[in-house]
Amino acid sequence: MILISGLLFFFPLIAESQQQWMVYFKDKQRNGFNPYEYFDIKTIERRIRTGLQVDDPSDWPVNDAYVDEITPMVMEVIFTSRWFNSVVVKATSMQMVRIMELSFVLDAEYVEPSALQVAGYYEYDTTMDFEQEKVLKGQLSTLGVDAWQKAGISGKGIRIAIFDVGFDHADKVPAFDQIRKENRLIATRDFTKRGNSENVYYGNGHGTQVWSCIAGKIGDLQIGLATGAEFLLAKTEKNSEKFSEELNWLAASEWADKNGADIINSSLGYTFKRYFNWQMDGRTSFISRAANIAARKGMLVVNAAGNEGSGKWHYVGAPADADSVLSVGGINPATGYHTSFSSYGPTSDKRMKPNVSAYGHVTTAAPAGFTSTQGTSYSSPLVAGFAACAWQTNRSLTNMQLFQEIEKSGNLYPYFDYAHGYGVPQAAYFTDSNRMFVAPTFELIENNDTLRIIVKSELSGSVPPELITDNESFTGNPTAEGINYFYYNIMDAAGVIESYFVLNVTQPEVLTIYRNDFPGEKTLNIHYAGYSMKVKL
Amino acid sequence: MKKILFIVLLFVSTHAFAQEILLEQNVKADSIRPSRGQNLKNFTHFYIGFGFPMHTNEDVTYTKFGSSISFDFGIRYKRKLTSFLASGFDLGIGVSTYNLSQDVPKTVPDSVSNDKEKFRISTLSPSVYLRFNVGRRGNYVGNFLDLGAYGSWNMRKLHFTINKNEFDEKVRVETTRLGYMENLSYGFLARTGSNRYVVTAKYRMSDIFKSSYAIPELPRLTIGVEVGLF
């Protein structure tokens, strides 16, 4: 109410112009809602499998009587949200003042209106240069494509919803021929348009490239890991970072839930144009709140960390800040560690983000042909494809159990930092129960106040898992060019990392730490070549 | 020797590295909440802009559109009051050129026709404004409307004419310290913009010529564009 009054006070012109508003209702009833009729059978199966109720109040429809009462008071009703128990309307501020007086209205939020786009056409080019081939190989091999293939895992039976800015020519790009042929494209919806438009194949090719990083395949050439999965495509963005895109995201999430999605891949994020750094606490932004509800419905939400690492914003955006969102950072294939543009964590309330990492420079199937591109937008679908494969190996996992298992499969785990999370997920964690654990790769020499870390010159031998306790890790794929970096961080008593480093090891004595320099309860965490250690300072 | 050892140890204080640091992040230092920024408590930036004097019905003196132009450069301070309201001030320097039409009846500053005739006024202008923002945003200027007032010290006032003499040579006559022109002026301003791109309007309330000289006024309204340098 204060917001509306403020707007009226400062902007008399707004009072008579049409604006979009989200109107929240105080309550709702079940009113004969039948989840078995409303939801796709896969939604019901997912909820039962993950121990959720088949339906809860957030699934019940918004009270029609409330919507009916509001409808004649506004210019247009745009959509209703079951999860937020709200209706989005187009109304003048004067109309909103009257709506706020209704006894069943809890609150209202101003949201910005939207615009539309058009499409183009291209011939398809399937040639790749040497560098593109090399990157394509790496983007999958670092995630263990060979292990997935050997185990016959391709994300079969997993339904993935992709929210993006557009899927230009994805209906014709050959990378998805197999999916179309096998009717594994379940549904499409353009949430940036009014009505129920199903055409998402226009505008921007970003979504086409993202999809290819999840499941693209031309002949025997794989671009993503989940080539056997099913798909829902939703256009939620318009290249503009308008608030309405967050509403679209919410509407798409409810649609994905209704249509049986197991995983949502969302290669988007909202930062300085909409929020402040300190609002990245996973509870403030609208889209993060929506993403957390989506996770509570049993879907695994995978989101790009963001590309603000070298910008002023620096940190992950929304919804990558949400605690139930698996946020994915970017790795530079040329170096094998964090790529400079990939957004850093932690969240403003000091939780670890990103959770895991994957290549941030990739080869994708774009609308016109193979192309090289970069961004955590592509790291996210690589991991979404990985997640589909991982879930196929064990369908009894809940989404949050899978979330944790993917973190545990990271090549740095149990070590983490705010650039890489737990590192690049490894298929072997899910496919190879006899995997060997890495023997200590460095020595810790304590001398009074001084800690010296000496890297072993030859990394050989292995020890059985039962001999490794807190420092357990497992053999992952080596980083690019076979380089092993030395990772370490200083953590405070609350488990928050104060500073972290990646070193290029050029001689055995890699680090000396003076305990007296770290007053208070601090922990030194170290990772080198698959082996991690925790030392109290 | 001890001194040298001490200096060496001082440099190698916290962590002694034998290796190349590829990535270093200090989370503690990064966590300090800033107060300066586009949509934070204080925001200061430079701006540059230009505008064209526009004729209104009350103008008697006609200037040539296009070649009459003003350039501005300055610094702007914005203090955030609420999400929707801010206030601030500018300090700018500017040069305004009025290219006078020689059509009869010519009255400014006299009735003599010339091949070319211009006023050029250099100003130092402080101004104050209230800013109304529309739309929710983060640390981002966003869409806004500014309403304010300005004063100007007309630091340097030039009048010059260009004519051809009987030898077909150009003769330029420049007159400074124009006694018929006011030293100070004031008026209102309005700006509307999105982030760094701004459309500006200034309306001069004061007369530019001293009333005792009874010279018709130059255009009061200037409309232009401005770019924030941030």
Structure description:
The complex is a heterodimer of chains A (537) and B (230). By secondary structure, chain A is α/β, with parallel strands linked by helices. Helices cover 24% and strands 24% of the residues of chain A. Chain A has 14 helices and 24 strands. In chain A, the strands form 7 sheets. Chain A has a 7-stranded parallel sheet with strand order 6-9-5-10-11-12-13, sandwiched between helices. In chain A, strands 2-3-1-4 form a 4-stranded antiparallel sheet, with helices on both faces. The longest helix of chain A is centred in the C-terminal third of the chain and has 18 residues, at 376-393. With 230 residues, chain B is mostly beta strands. Chain B contains 2 helices and 11 strands, in the order H-E-E-H-E-E-E-E-E-E-E-E-E. Chain B has an 8-stranded antiparallel beta barrel with strand order 3-4-5-6-7-9-10-11. Mean pLDDT of chain B is 87; it is low at 6-14. Classes of the chains: A alpha/beta (537), B mainly beta (230). The A-B interface holds A 6-7, 10-11, 14, 110, 112, 243, 271-279, 314, 335, 337-338, 344, 346, 417-419, 485-486, 496-507, 509-514, 517 and B 13-28, 30, 33, 39, 82, 84-85, 132, 134-140. Strand 21 of chain A pairs antiparallel with strand 2 of chain B, so a sheet runs across the interface.
